[in-house]
Amino acid sequence: MYSRRTVLKGLGSGLVAASMGASRAVAATNPLAVVATTGMIADTARRVGGDLVQVRALMGPGVDPHAYRQTRTDIVAMAKADLVLWNGLYLEAQMEGVLGDIASRTEVTAVAEVVSNDKLIAHDDYANRYDPHVWMDPKLWRDVVTGVQSALTQVSPSNAEAFTANATVFIAEIDALTDYSANVLSSVPEKARVLVTAHDAFNYFGRAYGFEVIGIQGISTESEAGLNRMTELVNLLVERKIGAVFVESSVSDRSVRALIEGVASQGWTIRVGGELYSDAMGAAGTYEGTYIGMIDHNVTMIADGLGGTVPARGMSGKLSVGS
Q1: Residues of the chain by 3-state class (helix, strand, coil), percent to 5
Q2: How confident is the model over 189-228, as pLDDT tens digits?
Q3: Which option is the CATH number for 187-305: 3.20.20.510, 3.10.450.50, 3.30.465.10, 3.40.50.1980?
Q4: Which listed residue, 16, 144, 158, 263, has the most CB atoms within 10 A of its CB?
Q5: How far apart, in whole angstroms, are the C-alpha atoms of residue 147 and residue 142?
Q6: Can you list the alpha helix ranges (DSSP code H) found in 50-127?
Q7: pTM value surpassing 0.70
Q8: Which H or E element spans position 54?
Q9: Please, are residues 54 and 74 in contact by the beta-carbon 8 Å criterion?
Q10: CATH number for the domain whose boundaries are 13-181
């Protein structure tokens, strides 16, 4: 986790230095300026900070954080912020240089790195590296909410009580989401609990709810599925008679479409079970544009696509979600 005392030299250092100017104290009467890399983190900061924060998300709907590179506008916004929140665990790999430079001048917190290593899924190919997609398990996201609360409190201690109260409400909603998800996903027949998606974003989901997860690409969308990998997957889908695969809103569906064509060439039909939100949420101002709505949508879509029983409106008719 970066802090003011951690200096990593990287991209954009000159622009960052020019944008910072003189050091400034956080004004008690003004909302805290918070910049978050992903929509999931931004929504969490809004829920915990309430009216005391003004949050900007750098990555909108459909944006892939693995490949995202900061713009000049992003650098200026982060340099002027009271607090910068990012996922960490190498999710925003292309931004680490500039984030490290900004961390020498302002408060920067890698929120997913508050999750203890024993709860994380280790990377298959790299020692001491972990799957960054922790938001896919609401139980792990509770820890992230607490981490955001702590980061906001560090910047504005006088508002600690409000941040704690807001975090408590949000965590209660996440617990309700966890219970809903477990109930709905348990309705999927056991032999059908195989989730095939474009890349390995759903391993925490699979571990939490007892699904086998198969990503065509690896943990990062920067990797490509080779011919041997595609052949193995086609044979697996045909052999196990898996009926549905899922596309992702922030990843090209090219590999999924190729997989469907390969399965068809062997005489088996597989359909697209729906579009899931993996590395980005839905559009701002929509239910799917909130963390709760994103996960609710995924759970409902997966259960429905794999033969489970779901309420007509998912969990949205049962839970009032703030923004």
Answers
A1: 45, 10, 40
A2: 999 999 998 878 999 999 999 999 988 875 444 445 467 7
A3: 3.40.50.1980
A4: 144
A5: 9
A6: 72-80, 96-102
A7: yes
A8: strand 53-57
A9: no
A10: 3.40.50.1980
